[in-house]
Amino acid sequence: MDEILAGYAVAATPELIARFEALSSREVYAPILNLLPTTPVSVADIGAGTGRDAMWFAAQGHRVLAVEPVKELREAGIALHDCPMIEWLDDRLPQLVETRARGPFDLVTLSAVWQHLDDNARQLAMPNLEQITVPGGMVIMSLRHGPGAPGRRVFPVSPEESIYAARRSGFQLLLRSEANSIQAENQASGVRWTWLVLKKVC
Fold it and tell me: Which CATH number goes with the domain that contains 29?
């Protein structure tokens, strides 16, 4: 994980940050949009990057904890999205020590994050995601299939194994949705996504 985070730090150029910010959060979350909360809730955005999605959630009235371990991305996010509804936190998977101290949350999101954890780290992370989610709350994650960017390693991820691990940690599957990448470069590389919506059983 240290190597992957270092890769993001090196890649955090103004060009990359602008590319992250140019994506529409609504389009990113389109596969599961109908399941997102429509009234204000508490959100933990794990791997918040530049805060694009955190700002989108905040604009809808949600209070957001933007969790981002890469200093360069976190500082860019703070500069770009100066919003009282967003709190920034330096924390990382799989332990999420600081995040657990601030939880639990109604909604936990992991957009384009899970593929950076190997199988071992995923097994450690899932019970911690359960800890930071309120009973009846949701975890939404996107699983990347296909090659990663240079310096930002990705690991093969099985939706079935992720669902099984989630069930073992007290979640039930509300939705599984398959989607193509919305970025032209990723489309050309054959990148696709599986979205999982998990509900913590009361």
Answer: 3.40.50.150
DSSP label at residue 182: S
Contact 66, 48 (CB under 8 A): yes
Count of domains observed in the chain: 1
Closest among 1, 12, 196, 190 to 91, alpha carbons compared: 1
Per-residue pLDDT reduced to its tens digit, 137-154:
999 999 999 877 777 888
Measure Cα distances from 115 to 1, 4, 194 in Å: 11, 11, 11
Phi-psi region of 23 (alpha: psi -120 to 50; beta: other; left: phi over 0): beta
Instruction: Give pLDDT tens digits for 72-83.
Output: 999 999 999 999
pLDDT at position 184, please? 64
Distance of CA 163 to the CA centre of its chain: 16
Torsion of CA 78, 80, 85, 88, to 10 degrees: -20
Question: What are the phi and psi torsion angles at 96 (to 5°)?
Answer: 55, 45
Q: What is the token pair recorded at 141?
A: 């994650």
At residue 25, does pLDDT exceed 80?
A: yes
User: The domain containing residue 78 runs over which residues?
Assistant: 2-200
Phi, psi (rounded to 5 degrees) for 98:
-70, -35
